[in-house]
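debug: dumping io for the single-chain case to check the tokenizer round-trip. Nothing else runs in this session.
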Amino acid sequence: MAWFPFFMDVSAGEGLIVGGGTVALRKIEKLLPYAPRLTVCAPELLPDIEAVPGLTLLRRPFEPPMLEGKLFVIAATGDNALNCRISALCRERHIPVNAVDDRENCTFLFPALVKRGALSVGISTGGASPSGAVYWKNRISELIPQDAGDLLDYLDGLRGTVKEAVPDGMARAAVFSTLFHTCLENGWPLSDEWLDSLLGGLKPGGVKEELP
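debug: decoded output
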């Protein structure tokens, strides 16, 4: 059965990573572009982990009270029995948990990611084929322009203007679609004159007049 791809704001709370080795480092590196608040717990930590700014480092073994108030947990200790125990404790507390390389003890999976600013695409095979996930990640990455995030930032900056000018929901959706495709095909920023023509050409009730 496929896993449903929820998207979570990992900056909204604190995540816990149990483990201080290379696997834990890879998970940290995947999360960093999303501005997380992370606590890392392990008796020994890689120097590369210690060098990551902004982490809370606990140089000691895992203890259950460390789970208190956590938004999510990653069990990456290299000790399967400990990872299973952490997973069970998280499930009891309804905390999302990822036990590395142990799909049966995960309640969420790490996807292969393509990120362009505010745009994130996650690819998962449900753990069936990590190589397949990487392959499709690379194919999708080739299709998405490097400046896609800049385009989204620009369009986001227009949202307030469009909402004020176009109160009708269906008409507003059509305007956003026109803006996106026009920017994608012709570049941005759009001229003030073009925007005025687009927004000014809407009749009451959401009927759009022909644009110049």
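debug: round-trip ok. The beta strands are 14-18, 37-41, 56-58, 70-75, 97-99, 112-116, 119-123, 202-203, 207-208.
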